[in-house]
Amino acid sequence: MIEKCLFPAAGYGTRFLPATKSMPKEMMPIVNKPLIEYGVEEALEAGIEGMCIVTGRGKHSISDHFDSNYELEHQISGTSKEALLTDIRHVIESASFTMTRQRQMKGLGHAILTGRRLVGDNPFAVVLADDLCINEDKGVLAQMVDLYKQFRCSIVAVQEVPDEETHKYGVISGEMIKDDLFRVDDMVEKPEPGTAPSNLAIIGRYILTPDIFDILERTEPGKNDEIQITDALLEQAKTGCVLAYKFKGRRFDCGSVPGYIEATNYCYENIYLPKNKD
Ligand code: G1P
User: Which protein family is named in the record (predicted)?
Assistant: First the structure.
C-alpha cells in the first residue's frame, strides 16, 4: 500500500561541525550504525521497500553505504567480523534505493518536492533521519501505516513537548477523534514563543498523499524564507483531512548534540549490549 519512503538528506548538519564538514549528518553513527540506516530499517519494518533519498553535494557515502564493498567484504569473509555486516546486508537485500539531488536548499517542503519523480503518484512515507524513533513493539512508521490503511489521508507524527520548546517545531492543534489521534485544524511552523496552538510538536515521520506535490508547487516560502511542508499540510488539512498521531515509542532529536548523546547511550544499553554480551 505504501511502497516508498522519502529521506530528505541534503542538509548541512551545521550543528555537528566539524564532524559534518565532509561527512553527511545522516551517516553519523549511533553506536555502530549510521542514523539513516535506522530510518531505512524502520521503513522496512513498516513493509516499505522503496527508499528514495534526496541528497546533495558531498553525500556520496550514503549511496556507498547501501551497496556492497567488495574489497572489505572479501577481506573479512569467513572471520568473526563478518557478523557485523548482518544488518546492513539484510537492508541491502530487502530494499531498493533511488537517489536524486536537491541543488538548492529551500527548505523541507522543497526537499520533498524534489523527490516527486522518485515517489510517483502514490501515497508515501517521509523519514527525517535525525529524528531517531525507537519502539520495541512496533516501529513508529509501522504504526502510521496501520492508521493510513484505515483513514487514507496524510498523517504526521506528534509528540508533546514543553512550552518553551514549541518554537523548534511545527506545532498542530486539532480535535481528538480517538486515543492519540487528532484531526488537524491548525498547524504553525516554529511558532514564536507563547503563540503555539498547543504543545503537540511534529516529529520527523510523515505519511503524505500525493496531492501534496501540487500544493507544494504553489506554496510560497514561509518561516525562515523556506518552503515549509507544514504550510502545505495546513492547506491539505483545510481542504481535506490531515491527522496527527501521538505515536508510541521514544524519539531522540539527533540533530542536536544532547539528543545525539542521549540516543547513543540508550542504543548502547538497550540494543548494542544485549546483542554483544560476550
Ligand atoms: C522540520 C519541520 C518541523 C518539524 C521538525 C521535526 O524542522 O520543518 O515542522 O517539527 O522537522 O524534527 P527542522 O528540524 O528540519 O528545522
Answer: Belongs to the UDPGP type 2 family.
Q: Decide: 40 in ligand 1 pocket, CB within 6 A.
A: no
Could you tell me which residues are beta bridge partners of residue 165?
Answer: none
In this predicted structure, the answer to whether residue 64 has a pLDDT above a threshold of 70 is: yes
pLDDT of residue 278: 66
Q: Which residues contact 127 (CB under 8 A, 6 or more apart)?
A: 5, 6, 7, 39, 42, 43, 141, 204, 205
pLDDT tens string 224-235: 999 999 999 999
- Domain 4-275: give its CATH code: 3.90.550.10
Helices H / strands E in the chain, number of each: 11, 13
Query: Residue 104: exposed, middle, or buried by beta-carbon count in 10 A (0-12, 13-18, 19+)?
Result: exposed
pTM: 0.96
Q: Which atom of ligand 1 is nearest to the CA of 11?
A: 15
Question: Residue with the nearest Cα to atom 13 of ligand 1?
Answer: 169
Q: How far is the C-alpha of 80 from the C-alpha of 76, rounded, in Å?
A: 8
Atom of ligand 1 nearest to the CA of 131: 12
Question: Is residue 160 a contact partner of residue 199, using CB atoms and an 8 Å limit?
Answer: yes
Q: Which residue, 96, 111, 88, 8, is CA-closest to 48?
A: 96
| Ligand 1 and 170: CB distance under 6 A | yes
